[in-house]
Amino acid sequence: MHKGEDHFFFVINCYNKSGLRQITEPYRRWISVYLLLPLLLTLYTMIIFNIRYKNNNIFEIAEVFEAVSTFGQLVARKVIILMHGPLYEEIIRDRSYFWSYDTFGQTEGDNFRTQMAFAVSLIRKLWFASIFSLVFHFCTPFLVANSVLPDACWIPIDSEYMIIFLYTLEMLFYVEAILFLGVFDAFFLCMCVEFKIQFNLLNKTIHTLNEDIAGGRGNEEVWLAKLKRCTSHHNFLLKVHKKLNNFFSEYFVCQYLINTGGVCIQFFIINNESSNLTQILRSVVYILIASLLGALIFLPSSIVEEEAEIFKDNIYNIDWQNTTSLQIRKFIVFWMMKAQKPINMSGSGLFQVNRNVLIQMPRLAFSIATILSKVK
Fold first, then answer.
1. Among 10, 247, 20, residue whose Cα is nearest residue 122
2. 346 forms bridges with which residues in the sheet?
């Protein structure tokens, strides 16, 4: 499909290493699905059950919720990939039919490849930042008083071996969560960049077509052929975009609930008069990380929306009035009607996934925290 380096293979390589792909080596899939997944679900159940014993104050509740949200991100990613694995594969195959980056020359193609390379480099930088978090969690039981495990978890048996086992599981799943940044988050980010590039190519094609019509270059048969090619690719992009939304739809809801709930608790801690400086700083860091994870999902979706809006405006600007072909006029009118439908993603149809919702989430969390802090 593309000449030069294809940075999307970074996502495919991570997907292969995850062991969740249907065509991966049997031993990788067995370890990931039949060994690690049951252990993850067991650990997550124990983390949630821990709220029964740690609910004396807001700080204990926050400690449990941080663990729930941390491992909940991995549980949601892994379960969704298992549920929609065939759809993941289908989107990868569909991408091979996208227009070449070099449609308008090598220079323009290199510019598009740079955009994709930046998206991949952003995930790699998150990997390095996650390593520092991994080291912090690794040292937590040794440096923080009254901390037995990196994240709060119910310990069913008061045994040193059980603690070591749970500690090992938590560290193992921290590493797997870092890998899934490349499998899950990078997949969404890179596909959004791909959509942005494809709509950009469509916009450039329409612009050159408009210049040909205005300048009288070519004939109406050639113009109609270009219009049909653009329309066909536009319809194809809409279908792939819908598949991507279907794949991530449940995760958008999970992200919204986890993000809003977690940030709400942290705002409550910040507003609490009994909070010390360490607790406030930890809450601020949590809010920043939650905002970053939310931005990785909500901002790329908004960028695709904006590029699609430019595309719609370019259709309106085609100089179709100056053509004598009634067929071209009708074709463009029907195309404009089809382009009226906005291209956006939604969380199971409950809310749109864009920057406006990203801004609303911390506002909602702050409002809830403020109301709760005034309840006596």
1. 10
2. 352
Q: Please state at what angle helix 277-316 crosses helix 326-339, rounded to 10 degrees.
A: 160
Smallest CA-to-CA distance from 173 within 67, 88, 254, 249 is with: 67
Within 8 A by CB and 6+ apart from 158, the residues are none
pTM: 0.87
Phi and psi, residue 342, nearest 5°: -65, 145
Terminus-to-terminus CA distance in the chain, angstroms?
63
CA distance linking residue 214 with residue 232, whole number of Å: 23
CA-based nearest residue to 65, from 282, 352, 253:
282
pLDDT in tens, 116-168: 899 889 888 888 888 877 887 788 777 766 778 888 888 988 888 999 999 99
Tens digits of residue pLDDT in 48-84: 998 888 777 777 887 888 888 888 888 999 999 999 9
Distance CA 54, CA 151 (A): 13
Burial of 214 (0-12, 13-18, 19+ CB in 10 A): exposed
Task: Of 198, 240, 202, 229, give the one whose Cα is nearest residue 90.
Answer: 240
Q: Please compute, for residue 122, the number of CA atoms within 13 A of its CA located in the half-sphere on the CB side.
A: 18
